[in-house]
Structures are given as structure tokens and as C-alpha cells.
Known about the structure:
CATH superfamily of the domain at 10-44 and 240-317 and 448-490: FAD/NAD(P)-binding domain
CATH class of the domain at 10-44 and 240-317 and 448-490: Alpha Beta
Largest sheet: 8 strands, mixed
Strand content: 15-25%
Radius of gyration: 23 Å
Amino acid sequence: MDWKGNDPEIIILGCSLGGLVAGTLLSKRNHSVLLLKESGYQRSHREKGYRFVPFSSLSEKRLKPILLQKISQALNLPLLTISPEEQRRDKSDLNIQKQKVAFQVILPKSRVDLYSQRSQFQRELSREFPKEVIQIEGFYKEMDHLRHLLMKMKVKEGPRSLFPLRPRSLVKRCLPFPLFSKGGIDERLLPFSTEFRQFIQLQLISWGNYFLDRFPLALAAYVLLSNEESSELISDLDTEELEERVLEGFVHAGGRVEEIESVERISKKWRRGFIVSLKGDRRLFQSKMLILNSPLHRLSNFMDGREKRLLRREKRIQPQYVLLPFFLGIREKVIPVGMRDLLISVLDLKKPFDGGNFILLSLSPKGDETNAPEGRRALTVESLVLFEDWDQTSLIEHQKSVMRHLEHLFPFLDRYIDFTDFSWANEQVPRWSYPNFLYRTDSNFNWREGVVPTRMSKNLYFIGKENFPYLGLEGEVFSGLMVAEQILKRYQ
């Protein structure tokens, strides 16, 4: 496995969090790693004192401390910097902790805040779904039972396991897991009203990048109850800031970064590894191993015909929707009482989710002048456009539909808008690094093992949202840790 010459041992194509985690860990183990970053892609947008960070799932806006701790421990980076004064304040103000809300779900006939305290959350459900109180209590008891079984399994697997992913033991992978024999969440929700069914489905869809009606019950329990514990979720650290910290650690560990416009072709040479040629650039990059770290359906266009396995994997999971970001600078006065900083909204349950009917909405924190001027808030709105219709969709009509939805949530919104920006999406969505999609797959797979494997073929690896799309940011980080571990084992 010794690699001679000046070329890097490993090239990472793309600059998302999972690839940064893998690259930093490998660099810290004295491996030569080169990260190729798209020069034109912007992770965020700043305008007139406002800062906007697009996102593809709620897990990117409400981070789990245990996820940050895993990154910190693996990379030896101090990512969690909470002062002793903040810790004392958090412990003393228990009432505020109990009042925390992970996010808000707005449906045509109901509005539910996901409180961290179960009793408050149950009161919310009882108020919004009064005719189904007993059924709903039974549903959450079943979810609690499944979660208890998951926690027992986690203890047995040990602290080093990337729970909820299945250990790599061949015996354990071949043995069936009894929780999956009870069917999917869609069957379990049949006795409930359309409104409550949609309330549950929206949470499952929006936490990751997986658009499907049929979720295994164990997966539903893991996602729903993890989100319910909102007091443990971190809302004041966004993914762009986290990626910048990990990138700094990568460079400090000896990793190299090169900005490129785009890739012309990726060729695999038998003894010479991979050769990456660029568009409009005479440089060639060569490495023994290659890690792909951008959407698979974009990167597969760069591969030569020898990587047939990669092309088969691409067909297994396809993007169904593009998450289209719009940015608005608004005044604090227009925000209704009780509206949360992060919410999901659907106008009509009988219509498809595209066309502005479904939106994810994120408001910058009140009083945070690093994201908006005083008395203002930065509003990021994510709507859905069918992936296959992206090029033909009239964005002007789509923008009007999204604005009608927003005006339904914010009465008299037009009087309190500083500016709107729809141009960022036109420029950034076509880029090969753009990561915000909802995926769908018709293939059978075990949710603990994922859809797309991290190792594609000899010396070719993939890290992205398609590995474990139902876990959102958590799955992306886990896939980065797994790839680093797989490569390091080859050098032992």
C-alpha cells in the first residue's frame, strides 16, 4: 500500500461535511489527501447585512450534541465550545429548557409545536387532535417500546458502534432483526385521520433526505423520538460553521485544498489509480484512491465506462425533488405570535408537495445581528420542484406560488419585506456540488445498512446523502467515518 511520488494517495471530490470528516481523519494519520472543491459553489448567501444558509433537512438546523461529540472525538477537534457560564445558566433555567421546541408543523387544520417535555407535547396533540387522543397515546407508547428495544441493542453493540447502523459482523448482518417484521409506518397509521398521518409523515420526510411513504417502524421510532427530545438539540451552530471548523482541522492536519471549476473526466488506470482531468484547465490530478463527496447523479457523469458498478448504484436511488431556496429580508413586526424559528407547512393535503404547496422555513434567531440587521430577520424558504421537471419549470410562477404560501403564514407580509432574492437558486442549483435533494428508491434495503454502499469498487468510495438518506446529516457524518475506517484498515 506504499504510494510513491508527489501525487496524493487520496483525492476527495467535493467538500461536504462527510468528506471533510474522512479527509481530516486520514490526514491526521499521516496520509496524503487532496480535496478538490468547486470554486463557484456558495454554501451561503450574504446581502444587505443578512446571512442565509440553505439546507436540505431539519437535521442540518437542529444538530445533535452526540453527533458533534463523535466528530470531536474522532478528529480531536474542540467543536463544542460551551463556556462554564453558559453551562450554569442552562442548568439553572430548567423552565426554559422545558419550553424548548425543536420545530413547528403547520397543517391546514392544525399547528403543533414539538416541545421537549412529553407532557407539553401531549397537550399540543390533545388540543389539535381531540378525537384521537387515546389512539395517539397508544401510538406513542408503541414508539417508546420500539425505542427501548433500540437502546438495548445499542448497549449490546458497544460504545464504538455507529448506532443506528448495523455492525459489520457477517453473522449479525445475516440474522433478521425482529422489529422489521411488523410492517411499515404507513400501515400503522391507517386508523388515524389524514391530518395526523401527515403530521407524522412530514417529520420523517423532513428530518432526512428520503421521500417515501413506507418507513420501517423501528426507523420511525428512532427519528420521531430523537426529534422529540428537542432540549438536547443545538440550534445556534449551523452546518456552514461546522464545515468551516472541520476544514480548518483538515488543513492543519496537512490536507491540501484545490479549487476547481468542474471535472471533465475521471479515468481509472490499472496501476496508476485514478486520473481527474478538469474542464478548461490543463492540470491533471492523480491518486491511488478516490472518494466521491457530491450528489451521485452529478458525479457519475464524470466517470468513464469502466465504473459500471457505480452507474448501477446511481440507478438504485434517484432524486425526486430539488429543494429550491428563496431568501427574504423581513422586519420583526410581521412575524405572528407563536411562530417558531423552524417550521414545516403544507397548504393542501390533497395536492402534491411541489408547486409551493410544501415549504420548510427557517428564521434567523431574534436579536442575532450576525444574521440580520437590528429589528430584522433572515427568512430562508425551501420549496420543492420535481427533479425531472427542473429545467422546464417556470420559476416565476413557482415563486408566485411560494409567496402566496408565505402570505398565508405572514399576514400583510408585503408591507414588511426589505428585499427578496430568487437568483441564488438559478445560479447554484445546476452546479455539481449542490447537495439539496429529496431521494426515492424502489429497491429493498435494510435501513441499518443503507441504500448506497460507502465502498463502490476497489479504491473507489462514496460519501453522501444517498448512503443513509433517512438519517440526514447524521448519516452523512457516519458514512465519512466509515470510509476513513475502511481505508485505515487497509494500511494495518
